Amino acid sequence: MRDVAVVGFAQRQMQDYDGSPQCAELLVPLFAECYEQTGWTKKDIGFWCSGSSDYLAGRSFSFVSAIDAIGVLPPVNESHVEMDAAWALYEAWLKIQTGEVDTALVFGFGKSSAGTLRRTLALQLDPYTMTPLWPDTVSIAALQARLGIDAGLWDEAAMAEVVDRSLTDAEKNEYAVRAGGSSVEDLLARPMFADPLRKHDAAPVTDGAAAIVLAAGDRARDVRDRPAWITGLAHCSDGLHLGTRDLTRSSSAAKAAAAVGALDGVEIAELHAPFSHQELILRRELGEAGLPDDVRINPSGGALAGNPMFTGGAIRIGEAARRIWDGTADKVLGHATSGPALQQNLVCVMEGSN
């Protein structure tokens, strides 16, 4: 296996939709930021891979317009996944492992303001039995949260604690769409949004984009004194139909974590949990006995501070990598999810030395 590291990361999360730029307009400055971080130009990128959704954009082959941000010349080696950009990172990592390229730039983008997100995401459900009912994402998450509460696995106070910690940490994140903790008591006093969820229990809808640069071996060492070396990367999926799985668990997250090996020594974990109770599920599923209590969860504020569609998972990996670069941690975990109720999960472990 080739040594591959995350060496660049840039993101944007729009605070509002008024005049929100198109995807190509979002991506151009992100690519420029990645070039500045690495000292590279477009010619130094061996492979490009993007993650987005035509359904979200409302037109076929919408990702082609985003490629305009790369530029016409010289021609590029490019691919695309209809998933969060974290899965584009997985494809790029595999591309580097083949030896065909030494570097890759992964990017994702999503313009949720183009439609009604809660309705659009119903299209990812079983097309015969579920989509015709148009159950929205928040309602499905509320059902999941209620199942956990009724089973005694968590309560509304535990969910509020996740929100309070996340939004307090988000105060230090310049890209956070929502920030500012208060208290568990204050959060519990707020009205229900989709029982048992309150608005703060759900990630805010936002437009955004992100880009991550990968490099192998000496190419990584040339641009970073402390590259975030990927020492484990795996993803897994549960069944499509919600009735075939226990929604209070996430077996795909557990399997992905098992595939990357021991999580001993992980100091920081950026978990992609678009709803507060989903963090509680992930903390239990990642690792044989769950994540230890001393692992710091989502110091960036996590998805509850901002969750651009098809970018939120990649941002978790980028935020985790930053903790390696600045010496905050020696071993970190980045996690991404996609699909309803934690259906698909990707786990990426990175270390500061290799």
Secondary-structure element order, N to C: EHEHHEHEHHHHEEEHEHEHEHEE
- Overall spatial form: globular
Task: Report the sheet-strand fraction.
Answer: 15-25%
Q: How many β-strand stretches? A: 12
Which regions contain 5 or more consecutive residues with pLDDT less than 50? none
Strand order of the largest sheet: 3-2-4-7-1-8-12-11-9-10
| Tally of DSSP helical segments | 12
Helix content: 25-40%
Question: Main sheet?
Answer: 10 strands, mixed
Tell me the Rg in angstroms: 19 Å
| End-to-end gap | 13 Å
Output mean pLDDT: 93
Overall structural class, as computed from helix and strand content, comes to alpha/beta
Overall description:
With 354 residues, the chain is α/β, with parallel strands linked by helices. Helices cover 33% and strands 20% of the residues. The protein has 12 helices and 12 strands. The protein has helices at 23-38, 54-57, 62-66, 85-97, 117-120, 137-150, 156-169, 184-188, 217-223, 251-260, 276-285, 312-325, and strands at residues 4-13, 48-51, 78-81, 103-110, 192-194, 197-198, 208-216, 228-237, 268-270, 296-297, 331-338, 344-351. The chain has a 10-stranded mixed beta sheet. Strands 5-6 form a two-stranded antiparallel ribbon. Helix 4 crosses helix 12 and helix 7 (156-169) crosses helix 11. The model has no long low-confidence stretch (mean pLDDT 93).
